């Protein structure tokens, strides 16, 4: 797709009506200020220092929060991202801002070389991007943004314009990334799954020969404690995987790393339900998408559910086996409506049990098993609690009737976001801020929980439930 075909219009600053008590709250004011500080005029950076470009799933979560401040700006956020979509349908995980110096972030545009290395896959010519992807939260975000101001959305043709791009994105994942042959999507790099440094990747990553340390420069260590970031060995493996993928022209196929991840696939399923809602809004047939969501749910259970762990596990496609590590990714399918009742009961038990401790030893959901050998309360995705995964699980708990637990998690997210200055992530025991502060999706999801009351169809639960078939 030509990225110049649909230029995102600039926002006018129109705001949506919402509960005045929430709008007047200090937490609302502070969260809104974070998003204002990260706004570039067409999108929002996750963090001015650490992440100075546009990130794919960050923008989806940010749009969900922005809809409470300006539905037009939320629409623009998603339109800007989708304007960088490749012709094969993939949405790249980074859209680079050309005004940002190359040394501000690594891997930078000169590493990815998207317009040349990605030429055969249809990378856009007029904007530089990465060549890998991130979790498909975008259709869910688009539907929730539409619900914030349906009149504005219809007047601008928002859903009419984004629907074909979102459909192409899902086709890419379902047709190009079923590397295991079982109907699920595989990620080909830990960065694609979004939980970059999870112990769930240690086993498949051990097969990867790291790139020499002299061949890359780490900008991330200048913005956080090195002991909280991935090790140089892990980073060398990330660089090797990305370089090999680039040098294959970003062609999908068997490689050193291919993993079926429960959260990535659960978010695809949730977005399939949202696409069904969008199709119905546009007067198109929606039943095929809802059927697909239910088939994908069945495949998820068949391939990734592990009864002895009490949760879903990642599957190492190359080795043909489940990875015996409990990560928060394996709890995220709780947000799916067609999950068998006995599985949802087990997931809630695991979430509140000793491995994750929610409601007992932890206020937010840790990213990794509290009892796991690799657990570290501060190191990136190896134990700290993140706000986006807790937000997803709050939705899942509420969807399956666990109102008390959902309310407690909602209160925990709001309190911790405020007390940590909207941290990137926190120690799951002490709530000590880690990583960057003033983090985009933390502020955005705080706004979402502040303004969507925990009753009725809060958080647009019908976007996941589906509704009437059509």
UniProtKB/TrEMBL annotation:
Coiled-coil positions: none
Residues covered by region (Disordered): 1-20
Source species taxonomy: Bacteria, Bacillati, Actinomycetota, Actinomycetes, Kitasatosporales
Keyword entries, A-Z: Glycosidase, Hydrolase
Keyword Hydrolase tagged: yes
Species whose genome carries this gene: Streptomyces africanus
Name of the protein in question: Mannosylglycerate hydrolase MGH1-like glycoside hydrolase domain-containing protein
InterPro entries: 6-hairpin_glycosidase_sf, 6hp_glycosidase-like_sf, Glycoside_hydrolase_63, MGH1-like_GH
Family assignment from sequence similarity: Belongs to the glycosyl hydrolase 63 family.
PANTHER family, sorted: MANNOSYL-OLIGOSACCHARIDE GLUCOSIDASE (PTHR10412:SF11)
Mannosylglycerate hydrolase MGH1-like glycoside hydrolase domain sequence ranges: 51-442
């Amino acid at each position: 797709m030509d990225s110049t075909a649909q230029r995102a219009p600039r926002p006018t600053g129109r705001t949506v009506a919402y509960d005045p008590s929430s709008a007047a709250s200090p937490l609302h004011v502070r969260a809104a200020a974070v998003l204002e500080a990260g706004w570039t005029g067409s999108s929002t950076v996750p963090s001015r220092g650490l992440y100075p470009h546009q990130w794919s799933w960050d923008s989806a979560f940010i749009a969900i929060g922005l809809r409470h401040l300006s539905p037009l700006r939320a629409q623009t956020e998603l339109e800007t991202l989708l304007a960088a979509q490749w012709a094969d349908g993939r949405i790249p995980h980074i859209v680079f801002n050309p005004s940002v110096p190359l040394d501000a972030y690594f891997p930078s545009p000169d590493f990815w070389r998207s317009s040349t290395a990605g030429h055969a896959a249809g990378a856009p010519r007029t904007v530089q991007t990465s060549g890998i992807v991130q979790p498909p939260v975008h259709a869910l975000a688009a539907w929730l943004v539409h619900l914030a101001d349906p009149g504005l959305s219809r007047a601008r043709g928002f859903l009419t314009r984004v629907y074909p791009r979102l459909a192409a994105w899902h086709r890419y994942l379902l047709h190009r990334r079923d590397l295991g042959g079982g109907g699920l999507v595989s990620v080909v790099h830990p960065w694609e799954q979004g939980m970059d440094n999870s112990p769930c990747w240690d086993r498949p990553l051990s097969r990867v020969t790291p790139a020499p340390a002299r061949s890359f420069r780490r900008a991330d260590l200048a913005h956080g404690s090195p002991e909280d970031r991935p090790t140089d060995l892990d980073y060398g493996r990330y660089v090797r995987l990305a370089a090999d993928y680039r040098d294959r022209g970003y062609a999908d196929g068997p490689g050193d790393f291919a993993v079926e991840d429960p959260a990535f696939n659960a978010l695809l399923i949730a977005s399939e339900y949202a696409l069904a809602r969008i199709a119905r809004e546009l007067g198109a047939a929606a039943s095929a998408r809802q059927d697909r969501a239910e088939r994908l749910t069945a495949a998820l259970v068949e391939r990734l559910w592990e009864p002895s762990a009490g949760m879903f596990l990642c599957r190492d496609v190359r080795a043909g086996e489940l990875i015996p590590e409990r990560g928060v990714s394996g709890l995220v399918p709780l947000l799916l409506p067609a999950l068998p009742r006995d599985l949802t009961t087990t997931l809630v038990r695991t979430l509140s049990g000793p491995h994750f401790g929610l409601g007992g030893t932890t206020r937010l959901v840790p990213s990794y098993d509290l009892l796991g050998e690799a657990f570290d309360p501060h190191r990136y995705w190896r134990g700290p609690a993140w706000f986006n995964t807790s937000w997803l699980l709050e939705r899942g708990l509420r969807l399956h009737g666990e109102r008390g637990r959902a309310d407690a998690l909602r209160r925990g997210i709001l309190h911790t976001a405020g007390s940590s200055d909207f941290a990137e992530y926190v120690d799951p025991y002490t709530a000590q801020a880690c990583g960057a502060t003033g983090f985009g999706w933390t502020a955005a999801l705080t706004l979402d929980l502040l303004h969507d009351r925990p009753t009725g169809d809060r958080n647009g639960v019908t976007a996941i439930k589906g509704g009437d078939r059509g």
